[in-house]
Amino acid sequence: MTDSMTTRPPGRPRSERAEKAIVDATLELLAEETGVAGVSIEAVATRAGVGKTTIYRRWPNKEALIVGALATAKAPVPPPVGASAREDLLMVARALAAGRRGPHGRCFHSLLGSAEKYPELFARYRQDVIEPRREMMRAALRLGIERGELRPDLDLDVTLAMLIGAFGMPASQEALPPDYPERVVDALLRGIAL
Amino acid sequence: MTDSMTTRPPGRPRSERAEKAIVDATLELLAEETGVAGVSIEAVATRAGVGKTTIYRRWPNKEALIVGALATAKAPVPPPVGASAREDLLMVARALAAGRRGPHGRCFHSLLGSAEKYPELFARYRQDVIEPRREMMRAALRLGIERGELRPDLDLDVTLAMLIGAFGMPASQEALPPDYPERVVDALLRGIAL
Prior knowledge:
Number of domains of chain A: 2
Oligomer: homodimer
CATH class of the largest domain in chain A: Mainly Alpha
Low-confidence stretches of chain A: 1-5
């Protein structure tokens, strides 16, 4: 908490650059083979080219740093605007498709792979990153129900699992076809029964 | 290829026990933090309490061993029997639910997490483990279409992704409610639009 406190120029370009370097370094380390075990404040500081103090100024510990970096990397899910349920779900689906492309995908598997070993880290990730996104998706579904476009007896949990799961599935490595979000939303809306 | 070739008793209980020990050791190592990198013929032999020769007799290399162990661990997807599309999909969904409970889940995330580092391993896993299962699911869907129960214009890829994805999603740690397979199949069949 010493340097830069007095000499910092107006605005925060330097600390923002440092923050980005720290987040990127954390995600890189997470994506590497040792996953969560390979992330330490020391290793992140070295890779980001910053002092450990600079990291501790913003994140109190390794868990907070990992969850914070993952939260930053996730494409946000926009709130429903309500033109139609289909449009709102399409926005969600497009955000999910965008999320696959970032560095987040591989990190997510690292995290899931060691979730049993770091239950608190995972719980925090769920609370800070997953739940706010799911809540936005539930809002889109509830709005659709209110407006009489979606079934009132809709199974929210299962619907979310199918919608989110559809974007996790065709093995994370592959690029999705550009019309994939639309195909998922339409299949979800219409169902597969004749 | 020396011991046990001449002295083996009738039947194969001993080699089956060895095979099970080898598969279990491979899955345990895979599930540990270093994932694919932590699996070596040497480490598996030590943990399983067998000689390396015993492993090489059955699996020519580490990649074959990992894919073989994962294939063994996966609950099989039964072929459709055709009582109804709903019944066939329910059998698929129950197999997917059962697959979450085994040791396979965590190993799968280890594998996905390092898929970029081991592209051939992942390709082989996809070909030997994922594809045969998907083909069985497609068969259930095609049978449902033929019998006029499912939409003829059904998007097979998206349907599979939603069905499989629904079982990957509610974070792999949690137990699923017992009626979950039924809820997924019914949501999939009926769709969510009013």
